[in-house]
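User: Could you go from structure to sequence for me? I need the amino acid at each position, not a summary. Structure tokens:
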């Protein structure tokens, strides 16, 4: 009973008051409901809806979606740089919950990043409507669901410099990735030029996971207090799962094909 009371207390009473009024943050059911609706659509309702239908083209929609992703991720990188995020102490940063200008810029970046992770879910819906069943993989689903949930969890309690640094690294990867996706919709001539880049995007993602894991682990290694140890453990477990999923994808897609 004490354990349940402690969980309930931290879940509802320990919210960072600076983000409590932001959409989707304070509610205990909205994000789980969005995740449930997402999984229900891509695994159940969507495939049934498309069963006797021809795949939708959606080329213009995809191009617009990719442009929005490129713009928003680039803008978030700019916002982080403009906020002087990287000129502050990023190794063992101070756990700052104040309302100063820098901290509120970090809050804004964190919340917009969180919104982008929800926006990312649209991509899977496009796969379903285009009948690209092979792209709705376990890796894809786990990655999107885990990122939405972890982003929600961290912004509720720990929207500070320590959490924002990995978000900016991820934004850079997404700028490269969605630029590739946009170019790959620009006809066969462009596709031939950019197709070799796809492999290296996966390599960049793997390197990203290693960089972020090292950064997330550094407070434990250096014995400095920048956030709760339990959030570090959750983040590392999730990063390891994603890393090995992406590594398996890389080996299956590129290394085994090369041997064959």
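Assistant: Here is the amino acid at each position, in order:
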């Amino acid at each position: 009973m004490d354990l349940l009371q402690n969980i309930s207390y931290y879940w509802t009473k320990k919210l960072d008051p600076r983000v409590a009024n932001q959409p989707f943050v304070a509610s205990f059911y909205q994000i789980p409901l969005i995740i449930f609706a997402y999984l229900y659509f891509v695994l159940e309702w969507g495939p049934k809806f498309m069963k006797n239908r021809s795949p939708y083209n959606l080329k213009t929609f995809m191009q617009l979606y990719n442009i929005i992703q490129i713009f928003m991720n680039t803008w978030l990188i700019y916002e982080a740089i403009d906020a002087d995020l990287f000129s502050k102490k990023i190794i063992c940063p101070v756990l700052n919950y104040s309302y100063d200008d820098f901290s509120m810029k970090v809050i804004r970046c964190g919340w917009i990043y969180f919104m982008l992770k929800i926006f990312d879910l649209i991509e899977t819906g496009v796969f379903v409507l285009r009948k690209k069943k092979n792209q709705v993989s376990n890796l894809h689903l786990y990655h999107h669901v885990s990122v939405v949930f972890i982003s929600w969890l961290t912004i509720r309690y720990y929207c500070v410099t320590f959490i924002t640094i990995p978000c900016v690294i991820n934004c850079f990867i997404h700028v490269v990735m969605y630029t590739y996706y946009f170019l790959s919709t620009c006809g066969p001539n462009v596709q031939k030029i950019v197709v070799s880049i796809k492999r290296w995007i996966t390599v960049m993602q793997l390197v990203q996971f290693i960089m972020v894991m090292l950064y997330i682990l550094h407070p434990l290694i250096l014995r400095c207090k920048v956030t709760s140890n339990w959030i570090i453990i959750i983040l590392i477990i999730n990063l390891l799962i994603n890393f090995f999923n992406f590594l398996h994808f890389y080996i299956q897609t590129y290394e085994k094909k090369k041997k064959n």
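One structural detail worth keeping in mind: The CA atoms of residues 24 and 30 lie 6 Å apart.
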